[in-house]
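Good morning,

Attaching, inline, the backbone tokens for the sequence recovery test we're adding to the shared suite. The designed sequence is right after.
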């Protein structure tokens, strides 16, 4: 049986969604990721601990959760959104490039 830490590493966005995610910095308290999705791009199912999403280029996205439920959201430029620990797939369903910064708390 895997530990929750092993599960988190298996669903690390830098590993499973490297097509849209990059590492900006990491230390013992936070990890900061950048993300960029062109229209139609998808970040495969991945996990984050508690984190803040800061939107630098807005657009329409769909978040799909392990249960299969989905939620479409319009991300607005300049918004900072706190999100509890979760797993999700992230898809750009709009017609603009969506860019953001994710600050994961350790």
């Amino acid at each position: 049986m895997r530990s929750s830490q092993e599960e988190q590493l298996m669903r690390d966005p830098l590993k499973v969604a490297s097509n849209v995610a990059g590492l900006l910095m990491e230390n013992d308290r936070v990890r900061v990721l950048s993300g960029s999705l062109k229209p139609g791009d998808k970040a495969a199912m991945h996990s984050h601990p508690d984190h803040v999403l800061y939107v630098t280029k807005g657009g329409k996205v769909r978040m799909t959760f392990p249960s299969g439920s989905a939620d479409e959201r319009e991300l607005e430029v300049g918004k900072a959104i706190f999100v509890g620990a979760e797993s999700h797939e992230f898809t750009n369903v709009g017609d603009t490039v969506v860019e953001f910064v994710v600050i994961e708390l350790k």
